């Protein structure tokens, strides 16, 4: 039988104290809803339906545009989870089983979703639960003598005895399609909040003789995020999950608690990642890469045996093999380093290709440039690529030597084998295999007196 996934994402999350809806709060570099959708689509449902509040639709659609075929349903009034699911009922495919996910339970895994869907074959309802020694805040799973679920008791409705139950409800439930409509019709709002609780369907189903079972998972996977402290805790859980997976693959992480992975990080063999490092977007570190402390890498590929020294920031770059970057280097989008290239301390690059074995060692800005092989760019060099209106390109050939303190006013070409003398400002091409120098004539003024400060000031 086919199945549909419904994600309840209409919660406002007032405890977040944020202008963003709760489900769009960022976890590991992505909205919580994105984390959930990435897992949900891998189980190949017939439909994915997102139930949202009226004011959040534009923002939710914007943040989920990479996912194809999503359906959106508005919950016009915040009348509870049962009411939210009932709003989605008219567009759920007839007779489909339904898997309900929550927009604030972002650590769910596709293997668990597959298990829930598969295990629904031997019952009418499957509740995802977890055992914990600290159940406060969660609904309790109440079972009969035969270990079937007879009710889910919300925290605020539980009596003293029920609060001692350690098996908790995650809010994630799989329903047989043939019973869902009638169970939702039977809901009422006679509770302390005046809401339609989806969990009340369980007691109603039990009274009708339906079979209700649990699938138990670890507590981390069903951790619910309600405020910024919860969000920080979830970030820690996600960090632990990602770093453990990398270490299982052989990556050396000096302190897993001091690495942030805000996207996808792929690593080869013998990669070393030091402390206080951040990886954003899609990052790939090839075999033997070393990442020093206080490095940020975003949407970049780093080639084999390359070293990124401390305090470097790399964004949208493609780095070759055996390169050295930093310390205190900034590589902006469009930077490409060929094999064995070097970018040193306090160097900034942007939309620049640096050829094999070329060096840009100190205190330099190189933008909109192509640098050939085995070229040396001296300290304090600037490619003057912007005229106040448009960007222009600098082309530097192979085996070029640029002295210190040089300004290259683009558009300009420095031909292969050229040498540019220190302190020059060039606005015309430098020919191959010649020394080009541009300086004002040096002079010394005899009898010159240094200005002195006026007394009393």
UniProtKB/TrEMBL annotation:
Does Ion transport show up as a keyword for this record? no
**Keyword annotations:** Acyltransferase, Cell shape, Cell wall biogenesis/degradation, Cytoplasm, Magnesium, Metal-binding, Multifunctional enzyme, Nucleotidyltransferase, Peptidoglycan synthesis, Repeat, Transferase
Q: What is this protein called?
A: MobA-like NTP transferase domain-containing protein
Name where it's found. Answer: Cytoplasm
Q: Which residues form the MobA-like NTP transferase domain?
A: 6-138
Co-factor(s): Mg(2+)
Name the Gene Ontology biological process terms. Answer: cell morphogenesis; cell wall organization; peptidoglycan biosynthetic process; regulation of cell shape; UDP-N-acetylglucosamine biosynthetic process
SUPFAM superfamilies reported for this sequence = Nucleotide-diphospho-sugar transferases (SSF53448), Trimeric LpxA-like enzymes (SSF51161)
Which one Pfam family would you cite for this protein? Hexapep_2
Question: Which reaction is recorded as catalysed by this protein?
Answer: alpha-D-glucosamine 1-phosphate + acetyl-CoA = N-acetyl-alpha-D-glucosamine 1-phosphate + CoA + H(+); N-acetyl-alpha-D-glucosamine 1-phosphate + UTP + H(+) = UDP-N-acetyl-alpha-D-glucosamine + diphosphate
Q: Entry's HAMAP family?
A: GlmU
| Family stated for the protein in its record | In the C-terminal section; belongs to the transferase hexapeptide repeat family.
Q: Which GO terms describe its molecular function?
A: glucosamine-1-phosphate N-acetyltransferase activity; magnesium ion binding; UDP-N-acetylglucosamine diphosphorylase activity
Reply yes or no: does the keyword Metal-binding apply: yes
GO CC aspect terms: cytoplasm
């Amino acid at each position: 039988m086919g199945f549909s996934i419904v994600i309840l994402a209409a919660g406002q999350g007032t405890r977040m104290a944020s202008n963003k809806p709760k489900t769009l709060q960022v976890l590991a570099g992505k909205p919580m809803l994105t984390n959930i959708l990435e897992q949900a689509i891998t189980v190949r449902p017939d439909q994915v339906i997102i139930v949202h509040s009226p004011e959040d639709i534009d923002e939710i659609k914007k943040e989920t545009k990479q996912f194809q075929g999503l359906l959106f349903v508005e919950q016009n009034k915040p009348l509870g989870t049962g009411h939210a699911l009932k709003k989605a009922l008219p567009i759920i495919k007839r007779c489909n089983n339904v898997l309900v996910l929550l927009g604030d339970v972002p650590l769910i895994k596709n293997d668990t979703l597959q298990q829930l869907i598969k295990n629904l074959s031997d019952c009418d309802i499957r509740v995802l639960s977890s055992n914990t020694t600290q159940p406060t805040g969660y609904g309790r799973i109440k079972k009969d003598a035969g270990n079937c679920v007879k009710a889910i008791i919300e925290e605020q409705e539980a009596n003293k005895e029920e609060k001692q139950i350690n098996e908790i409800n995650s809010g994630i439930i799989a329903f047989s399609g043939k019973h869902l409509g009638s169970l939702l019709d039977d809901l009422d709002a006679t509770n302390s909040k005046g809401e339609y609780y989806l969990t009340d369907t369980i007691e109603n189903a039990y009274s009708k003789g339906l079979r209700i079972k649990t699938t138990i998972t670890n507590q981390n996977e069903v951790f619910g995020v309600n405020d910024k402290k919860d969000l920080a805790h979830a970030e820690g859980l996600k960090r632990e999950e990602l770093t453990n997976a990398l270490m299982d693959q052989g990556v050396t992480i000096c302190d897993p608690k001091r690495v942030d992975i805000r996207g996808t990080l792929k690593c080869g063999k013998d990669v070393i990642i030091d402390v206080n490092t951040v990886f954003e977007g899609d990052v790939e570190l090839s075999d033997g890469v070393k990442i020093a402390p206080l490095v940020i890498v975003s949407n970049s590929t780093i080639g084999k045996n390359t070293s990124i020294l401390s305090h470097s920031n790399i964004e949208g770059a493609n780095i070759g093999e055996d390169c050295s970057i930093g310390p205190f280097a900034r590589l902006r989008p469009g930077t490409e380093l060929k094999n064995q290239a070097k970018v040193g301390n306090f160097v900034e690059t942007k939309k620049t290709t640096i050829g094999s074995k070329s060096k840009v060692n100190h205190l330099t800005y190189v933008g909109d440039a192509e640098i050939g092989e085995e070229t040396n760019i001296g300290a304090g060099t600037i490619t003057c690529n912007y005229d106040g209106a448009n960007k222009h390109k600098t082309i530097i050939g192979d085996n070029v030597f640029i002295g210190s303190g040089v300004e290259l006013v683009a558009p300009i070409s420095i031909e292969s084998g050229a040498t540019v003398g220190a302190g020059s400002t060039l606005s015309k091409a430098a020919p191959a295999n010649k020394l080009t120098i541009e300086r004002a004539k040096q002079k010394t003024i005899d009898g010159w007196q240094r200005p002195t400060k006026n007394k009393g000031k």
